[in-house]
Specification:
The complex is a heterodimer of chains A (110) and B (112). By secondary structure, chain A is mostly beta strands. Chain A is globular, with a radius of gyration of 13 Å. In chain A, 0% of the residues lie in helices and 55% in strands. In chain A, a hairpin with an 8-residue loop joins strand 9 and strand 10. The N and C termini of chain B lie far apart (36 Å). Chain B is mainly beta and 112 residues long. Classes of the chains: A mainly beta (110), B mainly beta (112). At the A-B interface, strand 5 and strand 10 of A face strand 4, strand 5 and strand 10 of B.
Chain lengths: 110, 112
């Protein structure tokens, strides 16, 4: 079977840095993605890692270690608007559908 | 392009009734995905299409669920008969894993 594990909740204050971890077990692997979803909204794409290492996009970075079946999303300079759910997702081969983790709810306070 | 358009946004129906959810995907994408989201189970893949052909429907809960994609511009997800446990937000999405999926706004279904 396939499974993705991520923490259910994370809290932080404005300006801080937070890391959301994701470990996965899949029959194949074609990349790790991250999505953000605000309450009542649709998931939106944040990042994609196919190879090991860190990908940076503004305040957000995503890391992948294929040998450890592990990745994380790093959010820096947190803002209140970053309060949302964050999902990791895995594709096990090209052209197949993504499988999503249960999501991590991030609460940012002032 | 207006993005992925789903209708209706909200649907309240009585148990036993037929429900049809609609999706108009972004043009130019070959794949279309239907997901269901609940607090307990998260985002579950129901079915996906490539070039209008169903590829994997193993996530469809049971025979009460069916999906069609008669052309590249339109897809439906039908539940007949509906049950209270079908209450969820249903999302349609297009795209690729590499460049990201674009989700529609979802249909919030409540079966009473």
């Amino acid at each position: 079977g396939q499974s993705l594990e991520q923490p259910s909740e994370v809290t932080a204050v404005e300006g801080a840095i937070v890391q959301i971890n994701c470990t996965y077990q899949t029959s194949g692997f074609y990349g790790l993605s991250w999505y953000q979803q605000h309450d009542g909204g649709a998931p939106t794409f944040l990042s994609y890692n196919a190879l090991d290492g860190l990908e940076e996009t503004g305040r957000f970075s995503s890391f992948l270690s294929r040998s450890d079946s592990y990745g994380y999303l790093l959010l820096q300079e947190l803002q209140m608007k970053d309060s949302a759910s964050y999902f990791c997702a895995v594709g096990n081969q090209a052209g197949t559908a993504l499988i999503f983790g249960k999501g991590t709810t991030l609460s940012v306070s002032s | 392009d207006a993005g992925v358009i789903q209708s209706p946004r909200h649907e309240v129906t009585e148990m036993g009734q037929e429900v049809t959810l609609r999706c108009k995907p972004i043009s130019g994408h070959n794949s279309l995905f239907w997901y269901r989201q609940t607090m307990m189970r998260g985002l579950e893949l129901l079915i996906y299409f490539n070039n209008n052909v169903p590829i994997d429907d193993s996530g469809m809960p049971e025979d009460r669920f069916s999906a069609k994609m008669p052309n590249a511009s339109f897809s439906t997800l039908k539940i007949q008969p509906s049950e209270p446990r079908d209450s969820a937000v249903y999302f349609c999405a297009t795209g690729t894993g590499t460049y990201g999926y674009t989700f529609g706004s979802g249909t919030r279904l409540t079966v009473v």
